[in-house]
Amino acid sequence: MSLQENRPHKDLIVSVAVPVPLRQTFDFLVPKSLLDPPMSDSPGGEVNVAARTRVKVSFANRTLIGVIVEVKTESDFPLSRLKPIVELFRDPPLFDDALWNSLLWLSRYYLAPIGEVLESALPVSLRKGNELTPSSERVWRLSEHGRSSAVDELNRAPLQLAIVRRFMKQSTLSSKEFKQESGNWHSPVKSLVDKGWLEEFTQEPILLGSDICEKSSVTLTNEQSVATEALTDLMNAEEFSCSLLHGVTGSGKTEVYFDIIGKTLAKGKTVLVLVPEIGLTPQLLERIQRRFEQPMTVLHSGLNDTERHTAWWHASQGHAKIVLGTRSAVFTQIPKLGLIVVDEEHDGSFKQQDSVRYQARDLAVYRAKQANVPIVLGSATPSMETYANAKAGRYLHLRLTKRASDVALPKIELFDLNTQPVIDGLCPAMTEAVEHTLSTGKQVMLFLNRRGYAPVHYCGECKQAAKCHRCDSNLTVHQRANRLRCHHCGYEGRLLNDCRSCHTKDSMLEVGDGTQRVESALATRFPEARVQRIDRDNTQRKGALTAVLEKARNSEVDIILGTQLITKGHDFPNVGMVGILECDHGLYSTDYRATETLFQQVLQVSGRAGRRQDVGRVYIQSRFPEHPFFDYIKQHDFDGFADNLLAERKSVGFPPFGYFALLRAESTHQAKALQFLRRAKSDCGQQDGVIVMDAVPAPMERKAGRFRAQLLFMSSQRSSLNAMLSNWLHYIATDKEAKKAASSVRWNLDIDPLDHY
Ligand code: ADP
Ligand code: ZN
Questions:
Q1: How do residues 17-53 score in pLDDT, each as one tens digit?
Q2: Which of 225, 249, 255 maximizes ligand 1 atoms within 8 Å of its Cβ, making it the mutation to test the pocket?
Q3: Binding site membership of 291 for ligand 1 (Cβ less than 6 Å)
Q4: Fewer CB within 10 Å of terminal CB in the chain, N or C?
Q5: CATH 3.40.630.30: does it fit domain 411-454+512-648?
Q6: Cβ of 120: how many Cβ atoms within 10 Å?
Q7: What is the pTM of this model?
Q8: Domain spans, the chain
Q9: How much is the pLDDT for 726?
Q10: Who surrounds ion ligand 2 at CB < 5 A?
């Protein structure tokens, strides 16, 4: 293996990826003093420095923890100029070949600094330099050598001697027990390990897992059987394959995942399951735990550093057979990986929108290819990228067209807002439908993707809206708190009585409907009904979302009113009708992805209706009921919609037929961001097949007091686009003037951007 090099005689050099925004690695010298004593497990006591392990270095006057990318004996720099590393972490390599190659690819493809990529791939606790094994898990015992040696050999090391004596009374000691009894145990224990007196081992991990292994109680439908058979064949082929499991809401995709997960586990392999941020519910966890007897571990953003470290460690040690997690779980080292599943693959939360801007679904596909294992992408409303890949035959297209429970898909009807008024969010026909549904004992679910009370606070005299003084946006009224809030920068202030523009007294009106306003109107109109609002404002506390979803699921509420938080794969068995209160602005948005997202949201939320017994009803309020969009919606015709959209995108060379990159810049000076981008455009020059648009202000130009601008790159070839941008990045890293310009603004580069703001 080329990972480890044993060259005791020559100077050892390591190239290190340091967590800084620079697109290169840095060479350091490994001082001889650090190689002594040699790593205890190194054969023949030789020096052992391994790539893909952590190292402490001093960089620009800071001590940083980086990852060794390569061990070598020569450098492009004279040895005298190389700084020595500060500390070697004697970890085994942290990434296997497949994951390592995927991370290198990610850095190249997204043009992200390798140091930052590797930093995101490790739990915070390891980035801070903590031991690889989480401290709660570390246990030591005397080794064979320790047991057979005479203790007086340690007479000159009283702390070590005391520790060895303790082991004579108690055969194993954990870090927890050491901490309780003595302060200074860490370094003597380490010395004893290095000398071979003690050995560290791990106790059986305590993981989520269950011994109630529930056999599937369902008989697979025909469509499910066809899908599972196809996936079984792919799994038996023991090579890379990518399948789209395209099944309408309620078609039982989960049963299909479970079947193939079970078969993979039976072969002694591990499974990685990725889900969207809000798709990771206790419900899903419980379902998996009950189904598989195997230990599993869960990684999501709600974990603290220690929990995350422990979860990562269980995965990387192979203790966990199922690794379930959100976006960044795709970075987890997993031995014997046999299958990757990405549920709700179209979900926007798989795209990281800051620091390293990557698409976890795409990385998962690349990783599966590297690991030579099958990957299954599942959705009722696939992304255009995935759907196009399936249509083109690059992915196997598995379809579930019918609901598993024999209940037909809901009937979708439109209410024309040109012929009836909207009062507090609902038109009379919608109110009537709610009334009717409640009278049959069913739940009502209302979807309104706008939180707060009223989205506009404006003056009845001069018609000016209250604006955020730091953003180009209106302030939203939040009535509970009696505050005005900016949803873009978080600004909060008192409600106004008097207009700030024309100074008229008591002229301010609250206009438009947010979830809070509709909630209070519903309470007045349906006094008997229990109304539950679900939006970001009342679910931020840890566990709060889970609690309200659970209430809704258990029919402890009658009307569920929520934002897109309710559209995701949650199963509400008793929902009889879904009302969509607003969707028009998605039809005429400047964002080319808006209709795709709207279609996904409307079909997903509609899918919550009538999942058991009776056919559900869906009602949509719109001023544009004749819009062709609604013909597809009414027919549940995803293919028709997608084919049409893809044809449009193809004709203009938009993704997935062309490739976009967005260079964003922001500055407190209005002109600076634009100037930087204009300069970038000219520095990029010309490249065949790449079109560079003009630098323009962002759709919301001012946010949190900063002026934002953007430069869009379009290309029919990924490689040309990548080449142009990496040349430019190299240029601004090396040319003095360009470097200066680039450091005068905040900027970031987004490859395959999801939103254009
Ligand atoms: P999806 O994720 O495709 O929307 P789910 O996997 O949540 O759908 O399944 C929807 C419902 O159908 C669940 O309650 C599930 O238990 C049930 N179900 C799945 N497969 C079958 C089957 N073969 N027979 C009966 N019920 C099934
Ligand atoms: Zn603001």
A1: 999 988 999 999 998 777 765 544 444 344 578 899 9
A2: 255
A3: no
A4: N
A5: no
A6: 18
A7: 0.86
A8: 2-127, 137-203, 222-282+318-400, 411-454+512-648, 659-751
A9: 95
A10: 468, 470-471, 486, 488-489, 491
